[in-house]
Structures are given as structure tokens and as C-alpha cells.
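WARN retry 2 of 3 for item q-0093 after timeout on previous attempt; input resubmitted unchanged.
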Amino acid sequence: MALRAIEKRSLPDEVFEQLTTEIVSGRYAPGASIPSERDLSETLGVNRHVVREAVKRLEQIGLVKGGQGGRTKVLDFRATAGLDLLAVVAEHAEPVEDLLPLLASAMEMRAGIGAEVARLCGERSASEAGGELLRIAERLAATDDGEERLALDQRFWQRALDGAGNLAYQLAFNSLIRAVHARRDFSLPWLEQELARGDYRRPIAAAIAAGDAEAATQATRRALAPPAPTDIWPTSSTTTEASR
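OK item q-0093 returned
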């Protein structure tokens, strides 16, 4: 996707989104320089302050670094960026098909972290968290509303994270959830399937309530087993049409 003039003036986030897409897609390769502040300002139709703010955000998430002579170099984001990039790309990448490898990776990591969170919660907070998790699981099974299920599922995992007592897992899970649910019209259908397949988190909740950390781990691994990318968004024609 070539850089294009900004329709909504004075919005650094739009400049940031375009440049992020160009870098993550590989159109600006690691080691290359992005256009100068002046050139970007002219190409995108915004003032230089807007460009400067957007480039600063790119530096903050590990995509670029200012160099000698005022040139800003593209970094290899695989070596310099953090989990926060997942959500940024998921929210702004075009076309939709570009998201499939990223989402598959995010969901694979989500399964691993979720299993460890369930284990720690079962070991550390069985009596405190177990009852509430069971109640949330029953509400998950009782509702037919997708948005309500999403909210309840996020509440379920927040309670499990609280019980696990690990801030690093909390922050990582936040980024993963943002990435996975960046486009709810695509994520809600597979969440419905995942919840039904895993009996609406009830086996996880029951294992945690019983203080059986190993059973909680195994139940979580089964429930969060990542689908194939085509199970997330079945066909390119469907996703292209839905993204319009």
C-alpha cells in the first residue's frame, strides 16, 4: 500500500498507522531510511509537527531509530519491538489476510500463557477464585449474546490472572487479547466455537476450585488449542468483503 494523503488533517495516529503498515509489511526494510520529515509532510498532506509526533511513536514501539544526518532508520521489529506491536498491527493492518500469521502466533502464545495462568491460580488462589470462576462459567454457558460472552470471558481470565498474581503474564495477556479481538466481527464467531468446545470454561474453573493445578493446566490447553488460520477467517473473499 503506497503512502497517501491524509484525509483527516492533523491526526498523527493516521501517519503512524500508515508508516507502521509500511514497515511491518517489509516495504521499508530493516536498515532503510524512511522519508524525511519534510518529504512525509508533503506526501501525506500534514504539517511537520504531526509527522514528528508519529515518528516518535514509531521509535517508542521499536520500529525506527533516529540516526546521523537526521535520517530515521527502520529497525528489525522482530528483534526490537514488544508485544504491544501485536495489537497495533491487528488494529490497523490492511488487507485483512495480512493478519492471519500474526493472529495464529498470538493465539498459540495465548494458549501457553493461559495454561500457566490457570496452573498458578489453582496453586495460589483456589479457594478465593474458584467459586467466582465457576459462576462466570455458568453465565457463559447460559447467554447467547456474543458481546456478553466476550465480556464474561475477559472477566473470567482477569479473575484467573488476579489469582495467579503474576504482573508480567497480566500485561502479556492484555496485549494478546487486544490483538486477537481487534476485529470482533471476525473474532466473535470463533470465540463462540472455542467456548462451546471447551464447555464454557467450566472444566478450567472446576479444576482451579479444586486446587488441582495440573488438571487446570490440561483443561486450559485443550480449551485454548489454537485453530488453523483458515478457521479464524475462512476465505480471502469473505474477509475482503467484510473489511470493506
